[in-house]
């Protein structure tokens, strides 16, 4: 039953008066009521829709349709737009719980919906109305669940409800998969491969924690499906380290051609990086059995040239598999671009997705996302699109031992830090003047000061001054922490100054430095893992992807930045399959400094990431803030 109330709001007097009400289903909004249903508009999650209705005079009024079961919560939402009529605003308020009878039946990648009452509500779920009045909707679980909730009296024909009822939205059966001597597949890896192989959708998101074998699972699944033409788009690190070629050789897979900086090979499998595709996407605009987007978090920003280039290739690919250890870096809206590349017709509107799965705030500067919706089980909602397994739930690894070491800034660091904080300007002891104009630049400079004063010097190898560097020198000299060790850094000049200081003060230890742009980066990282280096100073953005660093006994965070993905990925370099000891992870934090800004920012992103990646929130916050 649906009740409709037509109300009139006098803007001048502010009074609301009811002019007519009737029961939909028994009374039709026809000429007798002076109303004609025209179209439907999008509303927030939990509502049945907003309808635009046309008066005989040609003026438009609005109808908000709300679940009758929620009336006690006084749920009333204003329409997106209203039109003025003789100094008044006309709008309608309606309560609705059930639609008239209808049927749903499956048709390949679509659900066909037939209703005996005209409606345009399926339009906002990606539906398309056919000539016979039937709605054709993308066959994904999130849309099927909306249909089931919006129209409880629907008859679901055979095979149509499996999108909701099956664990993954489609049947999955065990496969006879290849085994390699000394390389047994874990049960969760078998499940991941079976998910990819059996999925009827035009793509999938494989969200295995770093180190759980996304690359191997993808290669085995593609070989099982006998895919001949495969394009792998990956971060440059993976291309340079030949990660995919090595894994393919281990599992008896295809030869993978390196196409970095140029067009693809004429046949077979090839790998390139995102920047090459962005610059030369036309060369890759040919038929592909599969496009693999490795570390698909890199295509989360819908407006970037990188995403636009991949989107242009989508029509040429039969399937897209997105791989990511952590598919979001902040809130659930990070998923939209990845899902839209996988199944474009099911995810047409970013803001529709954002309103449904995140908390959206209309600020004076426009719409802003302030959080993921805590009441949604994202893994169930997108179970047919996204396969999620977290390291802690599938592996029995020695635990990470987290420690927080606080240090006071050196007097010169404190002076410069506080002057920049209060006055946006300071002068170094060398006489160099440091000045910032905007707040974002101020925060960057504060973080650089907190790390090392060398970051502000014109001399790229300035010794500067750093409380953190002095602390590490002392800790290593006294053998407080066990070697081999990794020191995660971000700021180039500070990292170079740290390398110089440790190399000079620890003559018996082999110290190496890897930052962005180094030709020998892969060699130096391999030297560390194979025992030819004792201390590896490693840039966060360089080392976060594609490396196994399980030899490290101790890990120091000398710098932390506002990139949650960098923090999470760097943690998993040392804690993954093959780890036989508990790595000690030490966060070096300067007291009363910009370090606190970064920590608070990352902690604010943690709940959303934990919900989608199945990460332990308490454990994640402990890694960020240290044990209580």
Q: Give the averaged pLDDT, no decimals.
A: 81
**Total beta-strand segments:** 29
Indicate the percent of residues in helices: 25-40%
What integer value in Å does the Rg equal?
29 Å
User: With helices defined by DSSP (H or I, 4 residues minimum), what is the helix count?
Assistant: 21
* Global outline: globular
- Unreliable runs, pLDDT <50, ≥5 residues? 1-9, 16-99
Content-based structural category? alpha/beta
The biggest beta sheet is recorded as: 7 strands, mixed
Beta-sheet strand percentage?
15-25%
Distance between the termini: 55 Å
Explain how this protein is built.
By secondary structure, the chain is of the alpha/beta class. It contains 21 helices and 29 strands. Strands 1, 2, 3, 4, 5, 6 and 7 form a seven-stranded mixed β-sheet that branches. A hairpin with a 5-residue loop joins β1 and β2. α20 packs antiparallel against α21. The radius of gyration is 29 Å and the shape is globular. The relative contact order is 0.08.
